[in-house]
Amino acid sequence: MDRLSILGNGPLEGRIPISGAKNSALKLMAAALLCEQPLVLTGMPNLADTRFMARLLQSLGVNVEWPTGEALCRMHAESVTSTIAPYDLVRKMRATFNVLGPLLARVGHATVSLPGGCAIGARPVDLHLKAFEAMGADIVIEEGYVKAAALRGLKGAHIVFPFVSVGATEHAMLAAVLAQGETILENAACEPEIADLANCLNTVGAKITGAGTPTIHIKGVAKLGGGRYDVIADRIEAGTYAIAAAATGGDVFLEGARGEDMGALIDSLQHAGVTVDIADKGIRIRRDGKALQAVDIDTRPHPGFPTDLQAQFMALMTIANGTSTIRENIFENRFMHAPELNRLGADITVRGSEAIVRGAPKLHGAQVMATDLRASVSLVIAALVAEGETMVNRVYHLDRGFERLEEKLGRCGAKIRRLDGSA
Ligand code: UD1
């Protein structure tokens, strides 16, 4: 298993190009199953997760042309030859569950493994299944599989989500585009990736309005064609590098980052004493030698502070002046990075859904273990400011969601090296 060796060595300085958003790309790829003509996605992030999704689509009969290292991916689901997504595929990556809705809408039936537990909490899919039932699907769960059928097609429905779910909003939208009649989604998630999915679906012929607000209207159409669509910039990747720049007291321009998607993080950074300049083509982050101040955060659905940046912000707070309270409201088990950060000299106490972070004067290098995608990158951030060498083990988590991380950080002056598992 690969490891990363990181030597803490001062400010990051330079430019970092931001990749297409993983969380969006995966759902746009699922949308290819709905399209009778080729869907061409540009700005595709080359990640373990997106490559994995491509393999799943191929197993369902989609012709996927995506040369190694390229940002352009062409998918053609002229006909769907399988409607089964087996346990081994869905277990490895939760977003693969999102092929259920498109298969149901396009073919009328699907058998998809339940995603099962996950390192950051239980993560159920009941809201997804209730939405399909409201659209007239028959659903049974047998031996860990969801078997869904709507042999005469899905019907538009009025769905009010009891609480905000990104996954359920996207999944319901993916199914409703080919349903007969209108679907209204209320209390829908407002994440920028939801609007991105709607824009992409509209490009290929869907009729969706209101995506990005709590009420989404979807007028079903008989079929979808094809088209070309550019994946939105990854606000989580951009936020991660913004935090890394702030932590090291650096000056970094995040090329392609969209300030309008990152309001909660930008506010928190500014309160911590970081200077943020939003430009047309990106965002500049710098700290000009000022001390970091402790800031409290509370994760919430968008436009609140994103759960996917909680671990990284915690790493920043470990070296701030004062005490920060970090509350995680989305997932019940998302503090696994706290004990690892403490190995680097941080002073964090976890109490239920709250972490109390007392700023320490300095961190020092140590061996640490990556536990999930965002937790791993929080360890990288802490390692960049720690004295001496930090070894981050199990970096395959990072490869799921960060494209060319060592190269992007290395170009800004970080001393970061990948050691292969046998070394
Ligand atoms: C969540 C995050 C998303 C993040 C992603 C990966 C929110 C609102 N969502 O999206 O920003 O990118 O994780 O880390 O911040 N739930 C149910 N039943 C369901 C679906 C969800 O109870 O059918 C619960 C979940 O357990 C969770 C909450 O609803 O507590 C929000 O989950 P949801 O938004 O669906 O999760 P993801 O789509 O994975």
Descriptive overview:
- It is built from 14 helices and 24 strands.
- The protein is of the alpha/beta class.
- It has two domains: 3-18 and 234-419, UDP-n-acetylglucosamine1-carboxyvinyl-transferase, Chain (Alpha-beta prism), CATH 3.65.10.10; 22-227, Enolpyruvate transferase domain (UDP-n-acetylglucosamine1-carboxyvinyl-transferase, Chain, Alpha-beta prism).
- Residues 23, 121-128, 164-168, 189, 191, 301, 306-308, 330-331 line the site of uridine-diphosphate-N-acetylglucosamine (UD1).
Residue share in helices?
25-40%
| Silhouette | elongated
Q: Total domains, how many? A: 2
Bound molecules: uridine-diphosphate-N-acetylglucosamine
How would you characterize the largest beta sheet?
4 strands, mixed
What percent of residues are in strands?
A: 15-25%
Secondary-structure arrangement, i.e. CATH architecture of the largest domain: Alpha-beta prism
N/C terminus separation: 9 Å
What integer value in Å does the Rg equal?
21 Å
**Low-pLDDT ranges:** none
Largest sheet: spatial strand order:
22-23-1-24
Structural class category: alpha/beta
Q: Give the class-level CATH name of the largest domain.
A: Alpha Beta
Number of strand segments? 24
Kindly state the mean pLDDT as a whole number? Answer: 95
CATH topology of the largest domain: UDP-n-acetylglucosamine1-carboxyvinyl-transferase, Chain
| Alpha plus pi helix count | 14
What is the CATH H-level superfamily of the largest domain? Enolpyruvate transferase domain
List the helices and strands and how they pair.
Layout: E1 3-7, E2 13-17, H1 22-31, E3 39-42, H2 48-59, E4 63-65, E5 73-76, E6 84-85, H3 87-92, H4 100-107, E7 109-113, H5 126-134, E8 138-142, E9 145-149, E10 158-160, H6 166-176, E11 182-186, H7 192-203, E12 207-209, E13 215-219, E14 227-230, H8 235-247, E15 251-255, H9 263-271, E16 275-279, E17 282-286, E18 297-298, H10 310-317, E19 323-327, H11 337-343, E20 347-351, E21 354-358, E22 367-369, H12 373-385, E23 389-393, H13 396-401, H14 405-410, E24 415-419
Parallel strand pairs: 2-15, 3-14, 6-7, 10-11, 18-19, 22-23
Antiparallel strand pairs: 1-23, 1-24, 3-5, 4-5, 7-9, 8-9, 11-13, 12-13, 15-17, 16-17, 19-21, 20-21
The structure holds uridine-diphosphate-N-acetylglucosamine.
